[in-house]
Design goal:
Largest sheet of chain B: 5 strands, mixed
Number of domains of chain B: 2
Distance between the termini of chain A: 34 Å
Strand content of chain A: 25-35%
Number of domains of chain A: 3
Largest sheet of chain A: 5 strands, antiparallel
Radius of gyration of chain B: 18 Å
Structural class of chain A: alpha+beta
Shape of chain A: globular
Shape of chain B: globular
Number of strands of chain A: 14
Strand content of chain B: 5-15%
CATH superfamily of the largest domain in chain B: [2Fe-2S]-binding domain
CATH architecture of the largest domain in chain A: 2-Layer Sandwich
Oligomer: heterodimer
Order of helices and strands of chain A: EHEHEEEHHHHHHEEEEEEEEEHHH
Chain lengths: 293, 196
């Protein structure tokens, strides 16, 4: 099918884009297009106006400021993938980005687009939740920051106003030497994750001093497994500890769809959570499931 | 219908001045308005890669871009892969290794492979497989496609200095470079596939 008719707008600055959002009814922002274009081609969305952000200045950057990585909304996923800064400072993001679609889609796809689209399986969304990121939003009244736990308002719906746009995401960094692992399960490599698990650990003096565990794909928004985090902090890392603690994941309220039943998603959550923790803790180096490709 | 706008698409080094609605996808503009039908439409929602073209050195799904977005960017399509009537090593390798049957996915795979090998000539096996997995083929079962790309990669990589000194006269013309596949089916395959 072909996209429906719309008026096309090509702003060059954020101010111009925000102004357009404020004056146009039924407008959609176009970032990398890897999610919006399929929806337009299949007429799942019928905007009267499309505001193309691809020529807006100053929205594509990756920089470290005050203990966080700040990434502009129009930064291509490909640039995140090949960024030395990301690889060194935010290994979870580096691992996760490899799982997003294919390299071809990462050539155009953006971090801001993915975060605003809020697909339940989106890797970047999980990483933002895992790191307690903040999202910078700009509107007619200026700039505000939204804590990531407050960002998803519902299925595919971010908590931003119609006249606002996301300009950047700030990812607070974990200290050097922290451990990270991102694991997802899909039918084929490159498919949408049915369930994913993102683990961050600080291990000091043989004990876990800090933990973050995020489940993606189980619900409309990522689920932080707080109970698992609390259960493992203060303990020495071990497969038995993780296995016991991750049983909690079976109680997550999981979605059911054509890809998997709620039961199966819960099962995957338990297994992947444990694997992500084991991988992060360095306990899975020889595991049969821990192979690239 | 919305008002059409005049844009210029630069494809394979040539300018095409066309008049399109903003909602016209790049692949439709390339095919319908510029007459370059080598780029194919498989799914129109970004999963098959048959529409792959190279924009500014990157492999991109042209069904997921509007034509108006591609103005001012150098676009390469399958018609521009061969040069001056000579097939690209990838094209020759695809023929030699039976990496196509119906040919529908082929331009997409060729452009994907070309962009990949140009950006990263030394790309490793696993990574290459990962990159190629972004496109779909219903005929071949993929193994011949992978073989063909690897063969072209080997041919495109510059020879080490010692081997160059040992090499004799100019390399053989395209037809004789087919490896182990017997005689090509067409008398002069290069002519059949020459661009425009």
């Amino acid at each position: 099918m072909k996209p429906p008719p719309f008026q096309y707008h090509d702003p060059k600055t954020v101010a111009e884009a925000v102004s357009l959002l404020g004056t146009l009814e039924n407008a959609k922002l176009l970032a990398g297009g890897q999610s919006l274009m399929p929806m337009l081609n299949m007429r799942f969305v019928l905007p009267d106006h499309v505001i193309d952000l691809n020529r807006v200045e100053g929205l594509a950057y990756i920089r470290e400021t005050a203990g966080a990585l700040e990434i502009g909304a129009m930064t291509r996923q490909r640039d995140v993938e090949f960024s030395e800064l990301v690889k060194q400072k935010c290994p979870l993001l580096h691992q996760a980005v490899m799982h997003i679609g294919h390299r071809q889609t990462r050539n155009r796809g953006t971090i801001g687009g993915s975060l605003c689209h809020l697909d339940p399986s989106a890797e970047l969304v999980s990483v933002a939740a895992a790191h307690d990121a903040t999202v910078a939003v700009e509107g007619p009244n200026g700039r505000r920051e939204i804590a990531f736990k407050d960002f998803p308002a519902g299925y595919l719906t971010p908590a931003i106003e119609l006249n606002e746009m996301v300009t950047a995401v700030r990812i607070p960094l974990w200290p050097p030497g922290h451990r990270a692992a991102f694991i997802e399960f899909s039918r084929r490599h490159g498919d949408f994750a049915i369930v994913s698990a993102a683990a961050l650990l600080m291990i000091d003096g043989g004990r876990i001093t800090r933990a973050s565990l995020t489940l993606g794909g189980v619900a409309v928004a990522p689920v932080r497994a707080d109970a698992v985090e609390r259960a493992i902090i203060g303990q020495p890392p071990s497969s038995e500890l993780f296995r016991t603690a991750c049983e909690w994941c079976r109680s997550v309220d999981a979605m059911a769809d054509i890809h998997a039943s709620a039961d199966y998603r819960q099962h995957l959550a338990v297994v992947l959570a444990r694997r992500a923790l084991e991988k992060a803790a360095g306990l899975a180096d020889n595991a049969p499931w821990n192979r690239t490709h | 219908m919305t008002a059409k706008t005049e844009i210029t698409l630069t494809i394979n080094g040539r300018e095409h001045r066309i008049s399109v609605e903003p909602r016209k996808t790049l692949v439709d503009a390339i095919r319908d308005d510029c007459g370059l039908t080598g780029t194919h439409i498989g799914c129109e929602h970004g999963v098959c890669g048959a529409c792959t073209v190279i924009i500014d050195g990157e492999a991109v799904r042209s069904c997921l871009m509007f034509a108006v977005q591609a103005q001012g960017k150098p676009i390469r399509t399958i018609e521009g892969l061969g040069q001056n009537g000579t097939l690209h090593p990838l094209q020759r390798a695809f023929m030699a290794h039976h990496a196509l049957q119906c040919g529908f996915c082929t331009p997409g795979f060729l452009m994907l492979a070309a962009a990949t090998l140009e950006r990263d000539p030394g790309i490793g096996e696993d990574e290459l497989l990962d990159v190629l997995s972004s496109n779909l083929c219903r005929c071949t079962g993929y193994s011949t496609i992978v073989k063909a790309v690897r063969a072209a990669q080997a041919e495109l990589r510059p020879a080490p200095v010692a081997e160059v000194a040992k090499a004799g006269p100019e390399p053989a013309p395209a037809r004789e470079a087919f490896s182990g596949a017997g005689e090509p089916m067409l008398e002069q395959p290069e002519q059949a596939l020459v661009a425009e």
